[in-house]
Design brief:
By secondary structure, the protein is of the alpha+beta class. The protein contains 10 helices and 17 strands. The chain has one domain: Sandwich (Jelly Rolls), CATH 2.60.120. Helix content is 27%, strand content 22%. It binds 2-oxoglutaric acid and fe (ii) ion (FE2). Belongs to the iron/ascorbate-dependent oxidoreductase family.
Amino acid sequence: MPSLSTPETPHYTPAPPTKEELDWADLAVVDISKADTPEGRAELAVQVRDAMTTQGFFYVVNHGYTQPQTDRIFDIADVPFARVSPAEKSAYTAKMKESGSYQGYKPRQYWHIANGVHDQLEHYNINRDITKRAHPKPLRPFLPEIDAFARHNHFNVLHPILRLLALGLELPEDTFVQRHGFDAVGETYVRFMKYYPRSEEEETKTNNVWLKGHTDFGSITVLWSQPVSALQILSPDGKWRWLQHLDNALIINAGDALEFLSGGFYKATIHRVIQPPADQRGHTRLGVFYFCMPDDDVRLAPVAESPVLQREGIVRRCPDEQAPFMETWRRERTSAYGKTDLKKTGDGVEEEILNGVVVKHYN
Ligand SMILES: O=C(O)CCC(=O)C(=O)O
Ligand SMILES: [Fe+2]
């Protein structure tokens, strides 16, 4: 909470929500405050199971942060971009290709998008254990608030959702919670992300794609809703649909690790970022995320003991004995992303093979 004792920082004002009527995805809204009781969890488990087996995305509301608390996190999120010098940014750049980890900065223009055009977004990633590594000086006064924010995401958002996902598979409630320890060794982290407007030439050469269609490689992504429309999901009918901003809501999606663990029952949904509608162009777009993944030593093989999977069948992307550990999967995905030669396999689809598993990218 902002108070007299919290350090000051300029307020980040995002563009107002678009007035355009876009083709919005119709997603469930999950009131996570109901997860406090067994009856509430039983009700939400059905809602979450339906969302995760069809769209792979849903909204969460009543997560326990007030609008002013959320606004404060967005103000802090701008610090690593607006208040850190280029020299300090370069000193804290992540060694993505070499170490397979995003911890630190992903600089602008690091990824190839299409036709020689590179991205125009930077992000700064902070492991939930904020003490694991040093941070740029201007960010240091805000570390206690970032620590509280990571814990809030972990215990009040991630764990309740993991319990619902286990219930949806008729498994003991803590099946996935046990594989996502806050104090375990693993990469689950906070990401602040800033997109900058692009030139006409960049827009044309990339067909307005800012971030290519992909699945996230972790289990669950928590995206703090912000007003600049640009995120689209590939709907089950094959159409790209826009995600609508809801004030102080979270957007939740499943990634590869959850798809592996659930034997294909919960879908890692493909999503991308494109140029915003005309009334929001020319603005920066600031994002706040909590990227969640199982602990490094978790093997990403299906929870075959699930009665649901026994009835419905399991879809495997590789044989169980070859299923990657979370650590291998995240390092390979991180090193390869935006840096490898992809093979064109269809209209707007490119592929690569990592650890014996096909990974698709969409334009
Ligand atoms: O910026 C967004 O809305 C989505 C970003 C995203 O998909 C990612 O960082 O994996
Ligand atoms: Fe993503």
